[in-house]
Amino acid sequence: MDIKHFSTTQLDLLAAELAADLTATQELLSTLPPPTLAKNGLAILNLLPSSTRTGLGGKTILDLDYDSAVYGPKGAEVPTSSSGIRSGDIVRIEQQPAGSATKWVKTELKKGGVEGVVQRVNEKGISIVLGESDEEAVDKLLAEGKKLWVVKAGNEVVFRKMELAMRRLGEIAEAGQESRLMRVLFGHDAPSAVQEVEGLQFLDDGLNESQREAVRFALGSPDVALIHGPPGTGKTQTFIEVIRQLTGQGKRVLVCGPSNISVDNIVLRLPPSLPAVRIGHPARLLPNVLARSLEVLTRTSEEAQIVNDVRKEVDEKLGQLMMKGKGRLKGSARKEGWRDVRELRKEFRVREAKCVTDLVGRAKVVLATLHGGGARQLRDQKFDVVIIDEASQALEAQCWIPLMNASKLILAGDHLQLPPTVKTETNSRSDKSKSKSAKDTKPPEAPPASTSKYPPPTTLSTTLFSRLLAIYGPSIKRLLNTQYRMHTQIMTYPSVSLYNNELIAAPSVATHLLKDLPHVEDTDDTSVPLIFYDTQGGDYPESTDAPAAPGKKVNLLAESTSNPNEALLCAHHLRLLLDAGVKEEEIAIITPYSAQVSLLTNLIRSQHPAVEIGTVDGFQGREKEVVILSLVRSNDKGEIGFLGEKRRLNVAVTRARRCLVVIGDGETLSREKGWVKDWVAFMEENAEVRFTGLDEIQ
Ligand SMILES: Nc1ncnc2c1ncn2[C@@H]1O[C@H](COP(=O)(O)OP(=O)(O)OP(=O)(O)O)[C@@H](O)[C@H]1O
């Protein structure tokens, strides 16, 4: 594949994606009034500033409380949809439009607002970590004493980093300075033969044979190795062994993943004795990872002493500036105060940079998201191996951020689960193939002038993982074949239909059922691994009343099919499970449609707060003892929408450990030939099929 051509194609695709992202956000903001945005989890209204403090990394944290006049004491009446804003999200803080909510027609974000990252949302309000340069803007925002609202913002920074990486890649190719790894990753040079690792002693003796083979392969491949990990097969466990072996050989490793959680899952399982540093915004890290966070270490480690004195001074100055009432600094004193803060911050940054270089330099393992892999703290750092987890969920341009100077790459992923979410499925040159079907991975269009055998992908959803498989075939990967999650019966259909029937259920899970949990009774609902509520017959029609503005297609709300009676059936089965002793936190209810999530949340959340309710896409990588899957689609035309994407359905049916409960209209689902139809046929054969009328559940 022509690398320069690849880079220009990616730049086109990224530009289109960013435009789509911005348009979608803009469209929502300009077409929907704030209360509707809030209802859809995109905004929180009626907030009052309560305090500011200096958080980790010297950043300012702004606490905003729910206005008790609107929401009642302790925010008891805050709508559940506000949980759409979570810690780690980027938000804008704005002055709330004046007047009553009903008069707000549309919103234009003003220049006066500021952006920040949500640290936490709780019953009191929301805490937001601000960018360093924003204090004065915040000062202005607070000075007016008005109510504030926060609204989710798009993340342009992420795109800019990918663009930078692609531009750099193009320049390198143009100058003919590609590294050996680059040549291999684009099919110019074949990967070198796998070498045997002499005297390899496994540190984890629990690894199964396929995991051991994957470790041997990863260590012995000089250039690139793929670990193919179907659901629950222990990719992370395998990676931990690979990391420990590499560091044992004296190598330095950079470990990345597309999301913070993917990286944190690895951090949590690294042996405490391994010198490792996690780079990333503390507000986005799991609490039990913070001890390894670079930002935290710049406060708590020995090296941090030189930073702490200056931090204290900044804090004191900020404290004076944030004082309310009589003590509030005014006029030139206030200006001077901010000047001092800026000066102190400069000093702070110099000292912090030194501390950071020392801390990162000592680490044998550095962990960051793919975007974090391009962080300034890593600019001069050299690594022997780059490891990317969940690579089949990462955009390829993202993967290149940490790869620019790499010489060896190990990827883990599963191209048969969902690829990264992409708003534009096609590039600006070819037109519309809106369907989010398995066609995503269709062969790219013919190359222009060059006669390259592998033209650049025409959609961002083609991942580096799947591209390498397309170039080199299965010899470039090793399959982890033993899964530690699902009862054999839950595993069988995905194994047969997608994984060449190669999956094995580990003995510890092969026959496990809900009734085997010590606190669960043996009932009809806890003694089978697969239940299929077939709703065919018309009692459970889908509904598509999308609240989009006339003439406008609002992306987020467009996929708004729901099925109210199916939601009642979910609640019915949930009651059966809870009555049998299954704990709320062992249960998830998932569905492909966000409107069904809202419906289910409103129906169930207040009574059963620990039951997880979410979309299939959002549940990738997760598991629960029992999963209720609400398929929603029920219509005369046999339309199944994006359920037809078998990678989505694969994710949906592989989340449950002991019991999978499927609720769907067997007739609608069986109209169209393909994976869904075959799966329904399998369910009819192998699951306990129930036909439950509406009168039985109300
Ligand atoms: N060799 C093994 N022996 C026993 N249990 C194992 C083994 N390998 C993995 N597991 C268990 O299987 C589960 C899944 O492992 P892990 O989290 O490493 O998998 P994963 O492939 O990263 O998961 P996911 O599919 O959710 O991304 C964990 O509970 C882990 O302890």
TrEMBL record:
- Give start-end of the signal peptide: none
Report the principal subcellular site. Answer: cytoplasm
Ranges annotated as biased composition (Basic and acidic residues): 426-443
Concerning SMART domains, the annotation shows: AAA (SM00382)
Q: What residues form the membrane-spanning segments?
A: none
- Look up the record and report any one GO term of the cellular component aspect: chromosome
In short, the EC number is: 3.6.4.12
Q: Region annotation Disordered: residue ranges?
A: 420-458
| Pfam hit, one | SMUBP-2_HCS1_1B
Keywords per UniProt: ATP-binding, Cytoplasm, Helicase, Hydrolase, Nucleotide-binding, Nucleus
Q: Which InterPro entries match?
A: AAA+_ATPase, Coronavir_polyprotein_1ab, DNA2/NAM7-like_C, DNA2/NAM7_AAA_11, P-loop_NTPase, SF1_C_Upf1, SMUBP-2_HCS1_1B
SUPFAM superfamilies tied to this protein = P-loop containing nucleoside triphosphate hydrolases
Protein family according to the UniProt entry: Belongs to the DNA2/NAM7 helicase family.
Protein name, entry field: DNA helicase
Q: Which organism is it from?
A: Ascobolus immersus RN42
